[in-house]
Amino acid sequence: MVPQPWPEPDRAILSLFPLAIARVQLRPDPLDSALMLQEVLALRGELHSNPDPDCAWTGDFHGVWQLHQRPEFSWLLQQVSREAQHYLRDLGFDLDRVRLHLQRCWPVVAEPGQVVGRHHHPNAHLSAVYYLNGDGSGRNGCLRLFNGRHSNELVPGLAVGHDGPIATGHPLNAGWHDVAPQAGLLLLFPSSTDHAVLPSDDEDDLRLSISFDLCLTAPACGPAEFQPPEYLAPHPGQWLELPLAGDPPSRKMEP
Q1: Alpha helices, DSSP H only, in the chain?
Q2: Where would you tag: which of 32, 93, 123, 255 has the fewest CB atoms within 10 A of its CB?
Q3: Residues 252/241, Cβ–Cβ less than 8 Å
Q4: Over the stretch 144-188, which tens digit does the pLDDT of each residue have?
Q5: CA separation for the pair 114, 207 (Å, rounded)
Q6: Within 13 Å of residue 70, how many CA atoms lie on the same side as its CB?
C-alpha cells in the first residue's frame, strides 16, 4: 500500500501585541491521538497534581521530560519540527545559518479547577504546546499569553486603567491573549513570553497537552568556515564540558 501524505494543516501567524504566535490546526490520525493520550495518562499514573492540589500535573516535574524519545509521539515530533521551521521562516530567519534543537518534551494533565501559574521558559528560545483534547470553547482551561509591554497604549501607563481614557479590556491594549484548547491545535511562541493555564470549568473532563522547549544555535563549522556570530551559541557538538573538581576529564579533553 502506498502511504498517503498527511493533509496540509491550517496555518496562520497571529501578531498579538508585538508577539508572533504560530497557530496550526493539525489533523492527526485518530489512532495516533489515542496512543498519545493513553501513554500520557499511563505516565501520570496515580498522581493528580504538581504537588499543590490546585496545580496541574506536569511531567517535567516528575521526571517525564523526554516524550520525543517514545514511539507513540514520533508523528507529533515530525509535525513540531516542520512547523517550527515554518515559524522561523515567517519571522525572517535564514535556516541555513541556524540549527534547531529540541531540549525537552513533557505532558501536562489538568483536573477540573487546576491551573498552571504564570511563568516563562528562560532555558529555551522557542516553545510549543499541542492539545490532545478540547473543543475550542475554552471550557477546559485556556492558555493565557501575557503582554509584556502595552505597545499600543501610546502614553505609558494608560492601559492599566484607573479611569484612564482607554476602554477597559480593549483587545488592542489587553494585558493578555487567551487561546482555547482544541484537539489537534499546535501553538508556537517565543519562550520568553509569560504564560499560564486558566482553571477548567468542565467538571467532567481533563485537559491534556504536550509542551516542547527548543533552542537555536549556529551550525557546526570547521576552522576554514564562517565562525558563529557572538549572539548565537555555537553548535553543542563543539562545546567542551569542563570537569568539576575531582572528576576525570571528558573525552574531549584527553590528548
Answers
A1: 30-44, 74-90
A2: 255
A3: yes
A4: 998 777 767 777 777 666 677 877 777 777 778 899 999 999 999
A5: 9
A6: 18
